[in-house]
Every structure is written in structure tokens, then in C-alpha cells.
Amino acid sequence: MKILIALDSSTFSDRALEFVARMRWPAGSRVIVLSVLQPVVSTLAGPYETGVIPVGDLEGLRHELEELVAGAERKLREVGFATEARVLTGDPRETLLDVARAERADLIVVGSHGRSGIAKMMLGSVSSHVVTHAPCSVLVVKQPGRAGGAKEAR
């Protein structure tokens, strides 16, 4: 089984990683750990000018994400997975789907931030987009105790 897990630096991603690490998967399962650096546009330059975040800041963010996926990769290897880690640049929603297609993933695992209403409309939802457009099954790991979410199994 080929599992693609999407990580960012949130506790929601930590939960998704923990879920994958503790579940029993078919022998020979492989995990691709992916984090996507989304170029951010800043409006700090003025009301009619947009500036791109300086390259140094993007490099710092990339370094943080590389450390994140390397740590996840180590954790998954400790429990017996063959893993590969990647940090790519782009729209997280589309990049995740592109990798899933290219790798012929059997399952995508994402954490849910649990946003709804206006926050979801304003910020978008990677998990919602992936569930709707994925070429394979998607597992959305929710935070315990969230409204509408499952309680943590004991």
C-alpha cells in the first residue's frame, strides 16, 4: 500500500502522523511524507502593491518544513515503514493531488483544522479540497473533542 501523508507545522498534522504510525498497514506499505511550501504574497508594501515574501524568509520556511518531514520520516522508519520525504512549492491542495496521481497513491492522510463557516470560506480547506478531488481514498484525521469529530479511541 502506498500512503501519502500531508504535513504542515500544526498539531493537526501531528495527529495525522501519530495515526499513521500506530495503525497496522499491509506488509510492505510505503509512506511518502509531503509538506508544501506555499509562496505567500504580502500586502505590506501598500494598498495597491503586493510584494512577495523575501527569499530569505522562504528559505527559512523551507528549512523548517524539511526538518518537519525528516522528523516524520525518522518516526515512521522506527515503526517499520519504508519512507520518502519531500518538500515541494506550490498550492498545497493541487500539489498534494499531483503527487498522489504521479505516485499512484492508495491513500492520502491529512489532518483537519476543523474550520467551518466563514473561516473555511476565507482560508480554504486543504482537506475538503483533497477529499473532493483525490484520485484515491482520503483519510481525514480530526482532533479529539471537536464539534462533529469523533472522540479519541482509548
Report the β-strand fraction as a percent range. 15-25%
**CATH-defined architecture:** 3-Layer(aba) Sandwich
H/E order of the elements? EHEEEHEHEHHE
Number of continuous helical runs: 5
Structural class: alpha/beta
CATH topology: Rossmann fold
Low-confidence stretches: 116-123, 149-154
Any overview of this molecule?
The longest helix is centred in the middle third of the chain and has 24 residues, at 55-78. The strands form two sheets. A five-stranded parallel β-sheet has the order 5-2-1-6-7, sandwiched between helices. Strands 3-4 form a two-stranded antiparallel sheet. Helix 3 (92-103) runs parallel beside helix 5 (126-133). It has a single domain, classed as 3-Layer(aba) Sandwich (Rossmann fold), CATH 3.40.50. It has helices at 11-22, 55-78, 92-103, 117-123, 126-133, and strands at residues 2-6, 30-37, 41-42, 51-52, 82-89, 107-111, 137-141. It starts with a strand and ends in a 13-residue tail after the last strand. The chain is of the alpha/beta class and 154 residues long.
Primary descriptors:
alpha/beta; Rossmann fold; 5 helices; disordered C terminus
Summarize the structure.
With 154 residues, the chain is α/β, with parallel strands linked by helices. It has helices at residues 11-22, 55-78, 92-103, 117-123, 126-133; strands spanning 2-6, 30-37, 41-42, 51-52, 82-89, 107-111, 137-141. The chain is built from 5 helices and 7 strands, in the order E-H-E-E-E-H-E-H-E-H-H-E.
